[in-house]
Amino acid sequence: MAKQRKQSTSRRRRRRNSRGGAPAVLVLLCLVVAAAAILTAMTIFFKVRSITLSGETRYSAQEVAEASGLREGDNLILFNKFRAINSIFDACPYLHTVQMRRRLPDRVEILVTECVPVAVIEDEPAMTPDPKDKNKTVPIGGTGKWLIDIEGKLLEQVKEVPEGLCYLRGLTLKKPKIGKYANFSDEDLQKPAFLLLNTAKDNDILPDIGEVDFSEPYNIRFTYTNRFTVAIGSTEELEKKIRYLRLITEEKLGANVRGLIDVSDTQKARFVPAANE
Length: 277
Fold this sequence. Notes:
By secondary structure, the chain is an alpha/beta fold. The chain contains five helices and 14 strands.
């Protein structure tokens, strides 16, 4: 009798489990159908019909749209936004930032900001060890003048230095390419060069700097306001040296004075008038 009761209980449990499994399968099936319906709807209804451009730039809306790789009729939801942005950067080197926004039901908005040129680098010819034979050297550099922004992005090659931009000499580039960032064969000059540019920008004197000579890393010099040669030595304590420079030129020297300003010693500054003064 006890055995019959146990068998009866076991059968009732199996029946309950069997009935409980059916709803779970139905729920899963409904989810699959719903997902398929959503995917089908996105594929059928959300198509790219227009691509608009926002932001000040030299590139036309058509140029940026073509660079993105997007075409009318592409799926608005499923297209690879990051691949499109990278394609735009490759084709439009002057762009500093690129954002893409999907605007339902059928529009893509591209928002851009543009790089601001601040300097020209002269890619000086040099010799470097041959990677295949350390006992030999091979020539590098000598590719000419490159326009850069404040972060060192190579914007284009130029024949002349545009007015109002500083001119960096004594540097050799490694495999320069438009749209990429400047890398110097002498890695010890990488940080000083961009530290000088950024510190000068932050102190509002970058437009007043003319030619900068990096040929001696610990004797960096630049022309200033077309009247002075400024010797900063290294870029150590550069903020303090720039403050000295501004104090001397704005408060200590007359409007027509020319000469050498030496701020390489952070304890004192020295002025040497030009020979004809």
